[in-house]
């Protein structure tokens, strides 16, 4: 009897763990990548007591007021002869999705990429100190092991260089980056957003070269926006919103280390994207559910209104679970009848287990 109880406990724990992961990802959908996101935001400047870094000129921190810390953070710097206002829309966007954002100016409008990279590292030092400042609303609220950098034009080149200078950086978002003769030996996952018709930093002379100069061992993605110009990635709305959705998913996946965003990228945003004229990728991420094309079992249509057809060679059993791990239905799939009838179940998400493989099924 003790052995039976032990076996039952192990099965319960396995199911609970698996379905807790699935339930955790329920709210992570393409529709959840909104602008703005779900959280209210506020700002901090040097007038509020934040550090005045010596390697940059002026800063604004955007942070969520009703999210749950600890937060990941990103530092953003503008491009050549440009003010922070040129990239300021990224601040409230990221913050409204729970990522604290510091946007800085440069000591000189003519600073080159290397100086902008150093400025980004100085901005991250400000975030570390803000995490320890007793009068700050962010005291103790930042995860200082989850920092990212970003920038536009020469600032994008500077973001790549910052990752070379500091290997603790967990992610890079380069916005139409400009950097000649790039030396980019780093292992920080990098997203490069470029514009097909960029006259200032043509992709063939900058973004594409940056992608190739980044080691193949580094997770990397290049997304070229069709008909995009040099400012197509200055806001999350670029490429009809694709720019913001991809950047947010990249940071959530690699900086926050939330694997729920892996299928959002691979199965949604990068699957024949209408906004792209070119996509190059070399990255691996962990899918939390099994895809049809990764096994010899297929399940369709999905979403469905009633019947799910199963493509499998042999007779097998199946179980249908709720998102809470409750067994809803079970049965056998014979060699002649391979359908699961969900018509009498409410419209929601279910997990169908077949031959030790689990499929997420949406009932409309």
From TrEMBL:
InterPro entries: AB_hydrolase_fold, FrsA_esterase, PET_hydrolase/cutinase-like, Secre_tail. Residues 28-267 form the PET hydrolase/cutinase-like domain. Residues 1-23 form the signal peptide. Keywords: Hydrolase, Signal. It comes from the Bacteria. Residues 299-364 form the Secretion system C-terminal sorting domain. Gene3D superfamilies: alpha/beta hydrolase. GO terms for molecular function: carboxylic ester hydrolase activity. Pfam families: PETase, Por_Secre_tail. This is Uncharacterized protein. It comes from Patiriisocius marinistellae. The lineage of its organism: Bacteria, Pseudomonadati, Bacteroidota, Flavobacteriia, Flavobacteriales.
């Amino acid at each position: 009897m003790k052995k039976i109880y032990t076996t039952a406990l192990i099965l319960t724990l396995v199911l609970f763990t698996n379905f807790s992961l699935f339930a955790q990802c329920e709210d992570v959908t393409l529709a959840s990548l909104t602008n703005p996101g779900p959280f209210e935001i506020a700002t901090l400047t040097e007038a509020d007591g934040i550090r005045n870094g010596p390697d940059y000129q002026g800063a604004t921190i955007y942070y969520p007021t009703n999210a749950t810390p600890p937060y990941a953070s990103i530092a953003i710097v503008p491009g050549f002869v440009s003010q922070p206002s040129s990239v300021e829309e990224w601040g409230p966007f990221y913050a409204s999705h729970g990522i604290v954002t510091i946007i800085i100016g440069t000591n000189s409008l003519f600073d080159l990429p290397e100086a902008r990279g150093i400025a980004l590292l100085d901005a991250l030092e400000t975030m570390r100190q803000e995490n320890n400042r007793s009068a700050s609303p962010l005291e103790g609220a930042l995860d200082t092991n989850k920092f990212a950098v970003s920038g536009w034009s020469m600032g994008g080149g500077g973001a790549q260089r910052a990752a070379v200078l500091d290997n603790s950086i967990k992610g890079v978002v380069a916005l139409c980056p400009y950097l000649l003769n790039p030396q980019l030996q780093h292992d920080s996952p990098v997203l490069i957003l470029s514009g097909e018709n960029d006259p200032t930093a043509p992709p063939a002379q900058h973004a594409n070269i940056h992608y190739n100069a980044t080691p193949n061992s580094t997770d990397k993605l290049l997304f070229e926006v069709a008909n995009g110009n040099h400012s197509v990635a200055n806001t999350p709305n670029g490429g009809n919103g694709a720019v913001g959705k991809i950047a947010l998913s990249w940071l959530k996946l690699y900086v926050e280390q939330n694997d729920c965003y892996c299928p959002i990228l691979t199965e949604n945003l990068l699957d024949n994207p209408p906004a792209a004229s070119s996509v190059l990728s070399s990255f691996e991420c962990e899918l939390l559910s099994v895809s049809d094309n990764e096994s010899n079992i297929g399940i369709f249509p999905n979403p469905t209104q009633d019947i799910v057809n199963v493509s499998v060679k042999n007779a097998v059993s199946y179980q249908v679970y709720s998102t809470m791990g409750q067994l809803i239905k079970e049965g056998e799939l014979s060699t002649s009848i391979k359908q699961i009838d969900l018509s009498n179940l409410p419209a929601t998400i279910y997990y169908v287990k077949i031959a030790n493989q689990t499929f997420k099924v949406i009932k409309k």
